[in-house]
Structures are given as C-alpha cells and as structure tokens.
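Quiz preparation item.
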C-alpha cells in the first residue's frame, strides 16, 4: 500500500501546483497566478559618516606671519640728487721738449776762421803705403772739437754745439794738437784753443786758453790733465778754436 503524504500550504492550494515530486516537465512553464516580481533595483550605497579631525590650537607670532612693505610716492618731497659725474680722465702726458737749437754764429761778429781737420784719419782711408803697418800709441784721450768756431759759453743756455769727437794720443803736445786741428802756424800769438767746461743743463764755463806760441802749448795733453780717463770714467775734453781778433784777450 502506497504511502500518503499530506502538505500544508499557506495559500490552501496543493503544493507545487499539484505535481508530484520528482516529475520533470518539458515545454513552456506554466504561468504563475501571482503578481509579477518587481523590477530589480540596485541597492543604494551607503557612504560612511564623515569624521572631522579635531582642530589643533595655532598661535600666530610675528616671526611666522609674512611681512609686506608698501612704498608710497610723496609728490611734495624733492627728487633725489643725480649721481656725481665720473672723474675726468687724466690728461695726456706732455710731448717731449723740442731739441735745443743749434748755436748760430752771431751776425755782428766777423766771419770765423774756417778750420779744417787735416790730421783726422777715417776708417778705410789708406794713409800708409802698401806693406806697412801703423803702430798706435799706447794711451789716448777723448777730445770733442767744436769745429764751427763758436764757444758754447758765449751763447745762450740750451744751444747744442757742433762738434767732432776725436781720439787723441796723450803723448801729443798741445801745439801739435792745434796744428793737427788746422790752426794756422803763421801767427803764433793770434790763434790757440780754449777748453770749454760742461756744467750740465746747457750751462758752460770758460776754461784755460792755450796760445800756439805760448810755452804751455809745448806740454803734452796728458800733462795738462787731458789723460786717458777723459771720455771714459770722466767727462771728455771740449775745446774750441781761439782767435784773438775775434774773442779778444784771454
């Protein structure tokens, strides 16, 4: 005998539409007599509550606050003075002074005697015969001969005299030196040489005058102080022709 089962449903209808359990249906499902289910609505997300952090106490000090500066223009204040001008450039150096003028002969004086220097021998001149050599003296002095007949101490300061630099043997007598310089030998009392002493800065002083016929002219140039040190370790000798008719007594 089959077992009877009883089902109690809340709707009072047989459960499962009266279909026994284990029965499989093929085909369209039967319509449900109940109302259709409501459309699907996604759930509304719930945001967590906003939690505010507690405010900390902040005290502003002068060192933490920014400082702003504002400039205002005062139209009544005078404008600031302009900057000083740059210093002027240094002046250029002065040009070098012109060379001192040559000493011209005085126009009122009589023409000076023209003295050539016949005893001067220049390098390259053949003054000895072929096959001969010249034996030079051992010591010499330096003589500056003012060959234009103008004595510098008779002229204004700054005049540059015309001269020829000569190397003279110290064994030569003063008279021989005068003759080698071209002093005429026919008038021993008229001509001679005067030593001109250079003081510097264009100043000159008159020295000793040696007359051709004077006994002092028979001394050697070394004996009167014109030795080999002149023109080397001391100043050179400066001499000018003396003419009694032009320069007056010595």
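Solution:
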């Amino acid at each position: 005998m089959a077992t009877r089962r009883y089902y109690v449903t809340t709707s009072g209808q047989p459960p499962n539409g009266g279909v026994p359990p284990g029965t499989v249906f093929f085909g369209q499902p039967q319509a449900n007599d109940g109302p259709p289910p409501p459309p699907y609505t996604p759930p509304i997300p719930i945001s967590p509550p906003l939690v505010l952090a507690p405010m900390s106490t902040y005290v502003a000090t002068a060192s933490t606050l920014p400082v702003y500066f504002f400039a205002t223009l005062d139209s009544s204040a005078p404008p600031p003075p302009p900057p000083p001008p740059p210093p002027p450039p240094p002046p250029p150096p002065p040009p070098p002074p012109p060379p001192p003028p040559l000493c011209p002969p005085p126009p009122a004086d009589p023409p000076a005697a023209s003295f050539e220097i016949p005893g001067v021998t220049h390098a390259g001149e053949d003054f000895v015969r072929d096959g001969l050599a010249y034996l030079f003296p051992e010591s010499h002095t330096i003589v500056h001969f003012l060959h234009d007949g103008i004595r510098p101490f008779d002229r204004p300061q700054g005049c540059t005299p015309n001269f020829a630099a000569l190397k003279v043997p110290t064994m030569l007598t003063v008279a021989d030196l005068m003759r080698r310089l071209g002093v005429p030998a026919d008038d021993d009392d008229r001509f001679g040489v005067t030593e001109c002493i250079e003081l510097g800065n264009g100043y000159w002083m008159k020295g000793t005058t040696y007359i051709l016929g004077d006994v002092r002219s028979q001394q050697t140039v070394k004996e009167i102080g014109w030795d080999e040190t002149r023109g080397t370790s001391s100043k050179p000798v400066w001499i000018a022709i003396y003419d009694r008719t032009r320069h007056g007594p010595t």
